[in-house]
Design brief:
Blueprint (H helix, E strand, L loop, with lengths): L1 H19 L42 E7 L3 E4 L8 E4 L3 E4 L5 H12 L7 E8 L2 E8 L5 E6 L4 H7 L12 E4 L5 E4 L1 H7 L13 E4 L5 E6 L5 E4 L6 H7 L12 E6 L6 E6 L1 H6 L9 E4 L10 E6 L5 E4 L7 H7 L13 E3 L9 H7 L8 H12 L4 E2 L3 H5 L15 E4 L5 E6 L5 E4 L6 H7 L13 E3 L6 E3 L11 E4 L8 H29 L1
Parallel strand pairs: 6-10, 11-15, 16-20, 21-25
Antiparallel strand pairs: 1-2, 1-5, 3-4, 6-7, 8-9, 8-10, 11-12, 13-14, 13-15, 16-17, 18-19, 18-20, 21-22, 23-24, 23-25
């Protein structure tokens, strides 16, 4: 019951957004940019190399190469005239209207064999013609384009600088001059290489791109989940194929199709196994959701990663809810000589990511508008290292305190840094940098070693930043420095620059002069 309630809440939150958004699969990004290698409007070369003679339709402007070889070779290079015929000297005219290149070759060969016997005939397309195609609808640049007759639908989109983010590329209509209509799913070509869905364009074709408003939404363990344009009579098997199919961890025995009732006001679920989807021709309705869930604990990778000052850093397999920190350190060969157990860290990648509205609010509030408590809270939460597990490595490995031996979880990161045998000094000193740590030296001693204060140092506001906690402490409150600590000497705020003072003075003098001039003008006018 609880899981059903969660699913209901999920749909109430997600569906309104999904229903209003545009298609969001990655291939759409390819249709929004102009290809610098694309053919220009006036080039007459194929956009894809060799063409398919069974698909390419010849037309006015194409130039053919015809070779007839016998006792001697005769070569003809006729062009197709505006009426769709070619003329071969001493042979006559051949009708090539509405013929593919293969059909044109057969027609020409048949005609030649009436006049020539025992010859070899070779026919090829020598030069392409230019065609005009109109691109209309939900596109960035609707217009009529001139392109090579060997261009396909995708070439037109690239040449036109692409589509809008709401364009429906799965229901593109191509209308020819004779009124024939073709419905094209360009995504099928982009996903599977089906050239029937990226056809050659013909002179006078009109390409209509509609706005996407009906969707099928795919969620879960599918290679390419997202919102897809709805196509009439499409089956669940076909849309899953377009979406790349199921992932290896997908649960195939209960694929859920969530569907609206006929009145469009309620939803209900239908469950199928994958074999039923492939054999029962499950037709989809607009607005359907297809949800493929994950098989729990299936091919789950149980590992942690340990890096830094151990003998054999790397990834180690763990037993879920059993393997401890000590076991992994031992498996990694133990610590190196320079390992700093005091600074060692354990991070949990599956950390609590609870949203903190107060922290997000305070990020937007200027410091001057915060109370002291709010500012302290902001600093504390900002310094918090999300995912860090509090473990005292020194107690665990030097004192043998088993209470510190935590059970590791999948994805945990263990970091053993090198000992920081130095103090960092930054800010307004003569020689900032790292200075070798000596336990008997004070903050003033380290500043003196660094050459003393620079001329803009704010000597009464020195801070120490603790290595472990990141806490800022006034230097006067520090009894003893520790390796890795940072001494920060801030800078006094600089005074106003000469040029700023000069320009401000000029502005003031200009305003005074204007007032004086206006006063004199009033006095003169009153006389």
């Amino acid at each position: 019951m609880k899981s059903r309630l969660l699913i209901l809440v999920y749909f109430l939150c997600v569906f309104p957004a999904v229903a209003q958004v545009s298609p969001d699969y990655p291939e759409r990004l390819l249709l929004g940019f102009k290809d610098s290698t694309m053919i220009s409007q006036f080039l007459t070369i194929s956009s894809e190399g060799a063409i398919d003679p069974n698909e390419y339709k010849v037309g006015p402007g194409d130039v053919l190469f015809i070779s007839v070889s016998g006792l001697e070779e005769k070569i003809f290079t006729p062009g197709i005239d505006p009426e769709g015929f070619i003329y071969i000297p001493r042979i006559g005219a051949v009708d090539l209207r509405n013929k593919t290149l293969t059909e044109a070759k057969k027609a020409i060969t048949s005609r030649l064999l009436r006049s020539f016997k025992d010859v070899d005939i070779h026919i090829s397309l020598q030069n392409f013609r230019n065609i005009k195609v109109s691109l209309l609808g939900n596109v960035l640049n609707p217009s009529t384009y001139v392109l090579s007759s060997a261009s396909r639908l995708l070439d037109l989109f690239v040449l036109s600088s692409g589509l809008t983010n709401t364009a429906d590329i799965r229901n593109i209509k191509i209308i020819s001059k004779n009124g024939e209509k073709k419905n094209v799913d360009l995504l099928r070509f982009l996903r599977s290489g089906d050239y029937s869905q990226n056809p050659f364009l013909n002179d006078g074709d009109i390409v209509l791109v509609d706005k996407a408003e009906r969707f099928i939404s795919l969620f879960g363990h599918i290679k390419y989940p997202g919102n897809y344009e709805f196509r009439e009579d499409e089956t669940a098997e076909e849309i899953l194929e377009i979406a790349g199919g199921l992932m290896y961890k997908a649960r195939k025995d209960s694929i859920e199709v969530v569907r609206f009732s006929e009145d469009g006001k309620n939803q209900y679920s239908i469950f199928y196994n994958y074999d039923e989807i492939k054999t029962k021709n499950v037709k989809l309705n607009k607005g359907d959701f297809i949800i493929v869930r994950e098989i729990p604990d299936y091919f789950e990778v149980n590992y942690v990663n340990i890096t830094g000052e151990v003998k054999y850093p790397g990834v180690y397999k763990i037993k879920k809810d059993e393997t401890t920190l000590r076991e992994i350190v031992n498996a990694a060969g133990g610590f190196k000589e320079k390992a700093s157990l005091k600074d060692a860290l354990l991070y949990r990648t599956k950390a609590d990511s609870t949203y903190d509205p107060e922290l997000e609010r305070l990020k937007l509030v200027p410091r001057a508008d915060m109370t002291d408590d709010e500012y302290d809270y902001l600093k504390a939460r900002s310094r918090q290292k999300r995912g860090r597990v509090v473990v005292d490595f020194e107690k665990l490995f030097l004192q043998g305190d088993s209470r510190e031996d935590v059970v590791l979880q999948i994805g945990d990161m263990i970091f053993i840094p090198e000992k920081k045998e130095y103090i960092s000094i930054i800010g307004q000193v003569v020689n900032p940098g790292n200075i070798t740590f000596k336990p008997n030296l004070s903050v003033e001693d380290y500043i003196n070693i660094a050459g003393g204060f620079s001329w803009r140092a704010k000597e009464n506001d020195i801070r120490v930043i603790r290595a472990n906690t990141g806490e800022w402490v006034d230097a006067d409150d520090v009894d003893q420095l520790k390796p890795g600590d940072t001494i920060w000497v801030p800078e006094d705020p600089p005074g106003p620059k000469f040029w700023e003072v000069f320009t401000t003075s000029l502005q003031v003098l200009g305003q005074v002069a204007a007032i004086i001039a206006a006063t004199i003008a009033v006095i003169v006018a009153s006389r």
